Amino acid sequence: MSNKETTIPMDRAREIHNLAFRSSRTTVSVIDAMSQRGAIKGEEMSAIGTLRDQCVQVSQLCEAFQSEFGSE
Fold it and tell me: What global pTM score does this model have?
């Protein structure tokens, strides 16, 4: 693997940002709904909780990025 830095065109970066933001927020909503309805088995809770935490982190990163760089 090369140490060469690659760049992503801004329109592609925005597309990735928007998809990550929407997907993470939707995943958190689905997990919350599933847990409220008792759809998660005890042995699944740790993995589901980790996934939810990761999605919250992605959402927070996207919000921080949007605050810093704005959206066009």
Answer: 0.80
